[in-house]
Amino acid sequence: MLSFENDYNVGAHPRILERLMQTNLEPQSGYGADRFCESAKARIREAFSCPNADIFFLTGGTQTNCVVIDALLHSYEGVVAAATGHIALHEAGAVEYTGHKVLELPAHDGKLDADELRAYLEAFYADENHDHMVFPGMVYLSYPTELGTLYSKAELTAISQLCKEYHMQLFVDGARLGYGLVSPASDLTPAEFAALCDVFYVGGTKVGALCGEAVVFPHGTMPKHFLTIVKQHSALMAKGRLLGVQFDALFEDRLYFEISRNAIRMAETLKAVFREKKCSIWRETPTNQQFLVLEDTEMKRLRENVAFSFWEKYDETHTVCRFVTSWATTQESINALRDLL
Amino acid sequence: MLSFENDYNVGAHPRILERLMQTNLEPQSGYGADRFCESAKARIREAFSCPNADIFFLTGGTQTNCVVIDALLHSYEGVVAAATGHIALHEAGAVEYTGHKVLELPAHDGKLDADELRAYLEAFYADENHDHMVFPGMVYLSYPTELGTLYSKAELTAISQLCKEYHMQLFVDGARLGYGLVSPASDLTPAEFAALCDVFYVGGTKVGALCGEAVVFPHGTMPKHFLTIVKQHSALMAKGRLLGVQFDALFEDRLYFEISRNAIRMAETLKAVFREKKCSIWRETPTNQQFLVLEDTEMKRLRENVAFSFWEKYDETHTVCRFVTSWATTQESINALRDLL
Amino acid sequence: MLSFENDYNVGAHPRILERLMQTNLEPQSGYGADRFCESAKARIREAFSCPNADIFFLTGGTQTNCVVIDALLHSYEGVVAAATGHIALHEAGAVEYTGHKVLELPAHDGKLDADELRAYLEAFYADENHDHMVFPGMVYLSYPTELGTLYSKAELTAISQLCKEYHMQLFVDGARLGYGLVSPASDLTPAEFAALCDVFYVGGTKVGALCGEAVVFPHGTMPKHFLTIVKQHSALMAKGRLLGVQFDALFEDRLYFEISRNAIRMAETLKAVFREKKCSIWRETPTNQQFLVLEDTEMKRLRENVAFSFWEKYDETHTVCRFVTSWATTQESINALRDLL
Amino acid sequence: MLSFENDYNVGAHPRILERLMQTNLEPQSGYGADRFCESAKARIREAFSCPNADIFFLTGGTQTNCVVIDALLHSYEGVVAAATGHIALHEAGAVEYTGHKVLELPAHDGKLDADELRAYLEAFYADENHDHMVFPGMVYLSYPTELGTLYSKAELTAISQLCKEYHMQLFVDGARLGYGLVSPASDLTPAEFAALCDVFYVGGTKVGALCGEAVVFPHGTMPKHFLTIVKQHSALMAKGRLLGVQFDALFEDRLYFEISRNAIRMAETLKAVFREKKCSIWRETPTNQQFLVLEDTEMKRLRENVAFSFWEKYDETHTVCRFVTSWATTQESINALRDLL
Question: Do residue C93 and residue A102 have CB atoms under 8 angstroms apart?
Fold first, then answer.
């Protein structure tokens, strides 16, 4: 069975497994107080040129979003997100479960628009009843977005400045951060990216790890007692070493970015196949997610041999389907898909 | 550095790492819909003789406690626990964060007493104001307890019957379940144990896994939409295979119980060393946690070469310290400790 | 100072104050276990022709919305509402604070559209990822809406049937219920209205009471231990008699509907004045809220003598303003406003 | 029917009803932005000699406790209370519903002991695992306590200093504050009392109001956006005037303290009757709650003519019962009770 279902459909990059083997029986303290976590943090600080960064390792994306959002917001604040943002749509209300409203703005190719954001903020504070409304305390965006698109440096800068102006925090969901930063369409270096955020996370699960996301406060502003907050959110891993070892491996010799490049190369190849096969392309993107419109019987037929994922109904008889490449995607699998199309 | 700090101070049992290697590049769907999870569930159902059990894999213990407790309780219900119960003391208020009160009863060697439980329940319902109080909706206990002790079959049966009588669910925290069931002091088979519970979890993190706990509803009563509830609690692992592969390995050929036995054997050896060295024993237990009272300067000296954990202050100049064995503890490490004592 | 600011800008209908005086020193039990509450419930059951209704008195609208929504939804469910719904916009995120997402659909004159609702529900269940999304467990709508409009019997019936079809509860916010049911534009009797709802509340605060809303489960489906749930939500009034006496007075001789008619008559007069004065009308409604577009300096001038409320910015130099009548509005006040326009 | 059931069994002090009548039709803005609230705040500041106090009016006691505790604590903090404290026992878990643990210490006649509090705090911070525990962020106590007892000035001062030392807030539940401060057993003036608290509330519901509690931050430290926090907790009253008018009346000419004295005088008379009748006294207190042990058949017989409240089971055949006086208790009712005993 071929699989383009998502970027978490196989295990870990071999270097990670190797490292887990090598370090397996070395005793270390729990909860992140191990030497692997320390080393991994140092490497991430270096990779993003933020020597004063506070870093904490968590297990998964939804968990990371919820812990960060709830830890940073005041109770009366919500988080602004695009209507297609992961927290708005596909986290089963996990953010609301922490008591905070997701304040949805329209998505444009998955992205927030800085002008619309400004208009919303101006209207909010001009509204004489805003004390009865949810205050915008944070802006959440994904890089790349859930639709595989990228904010330009100018776009991210504009949003970052608005956040400063309105005393909001800018939180960037980097579940697929590697795939974004190595895309030829990106005009941001890791250092520039980090400098614009108040907090972001470096996704491991979708970029070669078994699990794990690294929360980075590039300017050293991690809230006091963050470990306890993490524990309270049921998000503190006992064997924190599992996260430390993985991120240490991922950021040794910039492996993280290296393996991300494979996903982008394979995505380019995939797009070429789609064009060659005259598939009905719904959306081509500069990162590792590509979207087709498939007629429903064709979709069923194809699914017998290929795993890919449902995105949304297109019309009565067609479905938008997502094909994803990753660090692990091979040329062979794309060739095989080509034969099936 | 020797370590008796806890039972999660090293990586995973080698068979688990092997299996992760073998299955690493086989694509599988996410969120637990993979063949490893299916296989692991079948093995667990067999090991506990509960063919109709519903099973769900989660990542860590506090997370499992919170998801289960919140999923099963009505909003107006709390969970009864011993004052020394993990949820009462060492989970940073994670249960309260889900909105439920932990109703603490006195602990006797870490255990709830069925007679006190009955007295509490009778008093609750006899209280004319109980509509203004938190209803007891569940009993939580740990097997083994946080102090390494075990409920006898008679004790667990008495509590289980009380739960039925008062329409409460019995939830057993099995973070160290293997170490309990294989202890010579245990008079419960896995099947008998499972039959007495409404829900329990099989701890992986402390018994050979990198992470992971298997929630078991032995009578097939997992709540509807449990996956969504898990997601809402930020507890759904994307690469569910990581949990499936591990539990599949742990329950192949009863490896789980096999490796648990090592911890018990090593604990017996450790107790013998403590006695031989005339250490001031605070508590000897039939499982894998042993407790000493150490004079504080002695404690500091010993800590230079051995990791063990703080339990509580004994008096101004002494501290209760915990020494833990696990599936990975070696005779060599105990010998080395003996030389240091 | 004239006031058309809202329908809660004065105290209570004189009959309520009278009744409070008469009953003041009669001892009664607390928390709703008093004879006034019993009598009020009987009268409300009669007024809405639902003899088996369960009824509970709460203090305010937001509180009522939160208690009802949280008590009736499963944790993984959200509540569908129009984007202009009170819970979506003007309750400071109080519903999200209880852990539930408000699932916003477009508002048409403040109303949900049944066809759009059906389309949303069909898309939700057709979405292969809906287990990762918030389930629609309830539909919330306001009668009249926040914009003063009314659902027709056909519209409410269509939504009610959709709710049954999709196993959702229909909850109607009746903060201004009296003003809706007595409007000549309403084609619903109280009995027809009640029969279509799973739960609704009869607003007291905006229709003559000092405070208080009566939650009605017309089909007798109030959740078990609702009093405890109310207490847990900090919403149980110690002197429940305060609510009982007021609703008892309001539903004696159908006073509630009687005094609601005054608001509608005065609203008609107000609309006539606006038309006569060639005001820039933003929205005329069949109930007690009317909306003008005022030029900002004109708005400021008028505010020196009249209280009315900000609705939203219309453009750079104009504001939409709301003028509200109530049971207490007098012809004299409208005449005075006319002189000022 | 005689009633000594509680101190909220009748309506309001006549001066309050009068004032509600007088002000009834004067239009005022909602949500506390009315002239009555302003005036009431000024009077309360004067009564407690805290000219910089921030004051906010809420509706009921449990609500006030929850709003204050949740608004002031960090998410990882809990509130320390006596095991008999109202928030620990009789609020249906409303504080836990806000996500915070109530950290229970032993009660001595309903009171916290400063030495035990210090011992708990020292042990907490000495515990090497305290990052996995709930931090004590606030001390909650009631004045008078739920058992009618009073902290002495020395006792309250000791606790207040501990709070400062350990960076905790001191919150005093003054549901019956009047009855405490006017008790001859009290050695605290209102000014001294206020100066020792970070926040307290002046109970209205139990001291002459229909409803209402005044939250006082004597040192002007009310959190930013408190109104929005109140709204988010469903606790913002639309007709805030109802609270303003009542507290304005209660603090005009120190009526609040004046009427509190009646409760104390009547309690003294009641105690004399109990002694004269050789009742089995469980607890005599210096405030308005007195407790008897009644044989169960005697209790049933007495209940035919007198309302009083269940406190707790004493033994198989006896019950502790509470008799409460209030601002409204008359000598006649006590005479009548005497005849029945």
Answer: no
